[in-house]
Amino acid sequence: MTTADIEIGRIYYGLLIDRAPSGRLLSYGDLVAAAKAAHPDNEFVQRAIAVSAGRRLEAVRVFTNQRAYPDITSLVVNASTGEVGSAFGTDPVARRAEIAAFDWSSVDDQFGEFIVHLHAARPVKRNKVKRDEAKRLIWEFFDEHRQTLPPSLAFDRVRLQEMVMEGDAVADAFEVVVSDMAPRENSST
Q1: CB-based contact 169:141 (threshold 8 Å)
Q2: Residue 185 contacts residue 154 (beta carbons within 8 Å)
Q3: Which pLDDT tens digit goes with each residue over 85-139?
Q4: What whole-number distance in Å separates Cα of residue 49 and Cα of residue 149?
Q5: In angstroms, how far is CA 132 from the centroid of its own chain?
Q6: What are the DSSP calls for 97-163, one per residue?
Q7: Could you tell me the maximum CA-CA distance found in the chain, to the nearest angstrom?
Q8: Which residues pair with 87 in a beta bridge?
Q9: Residue 79's closest CA among 25, 38, 37?
Q10: Of 13, 104, 105, nearest to 59 (Cα)?
């Protein structure tokens, strides 16, 4: 997990804990929007995009799975289907009943300690990749996520490629480039 994964996962956890008693669902896009509204000064959160929200929830999933707690990430659903993806693997409705009944206040300190541990365990060295590999990784990510990326994706391909070559995760590089596009698109309207 990257620093961004851990930091955004920490924010998402707090938002999901607030929803746990009611079991109210929200889409990936709504989760990102709520995080941005609640944390306007957090650079990682402000650059977040819905397409990578599932990956950002991995820190939360690891925490709940390691401790056999209900998987609170089942509160986040695909906007078009209104449900979790098939990779979720278990009955999300049953998980949501467990989430609502669970005493999340009893594990707040544990999650904070878990986040500290994740940061400490994160490797510092980034794996650089060659230009052709970067192009392949970018294309694969784009091809897999094209439906959820902005429709007018005129992004800075050179910057994106350089970031991936320097070892940034492809999803992180897309987040940066797409979030930098937003102000330009808004200023042209």
Answers
A1: no
A2: no
A3: 766 777 888 888 899 999 988 887 888 888 888 877 766 556 788 989 888 988 8
A4: 9
A5: 27
A6: HHHHHS-GGGGHHHHHHHHHHHHHHS--------HHHHHHHHHHHHHHHTTTS-SS----HHHHHHH
A7: 50
A8: none
A9: 25
A10: 13
> Whose CA is closest to 138, among 103, 162, 107, 111?
162
Element (H, E) at 24: none
Cβ-proximal residues to 136 (8 Å cutoff; 6+ apart), any chain: none
| Residue type (1 letter), 19 | R
State phi, psi for 69 to the nearest 5 degrees: -90, 160
- Residue 145 has which token pair? 């996520």
Q: What is the mean pLDDT of residues 71-84?
A: 86
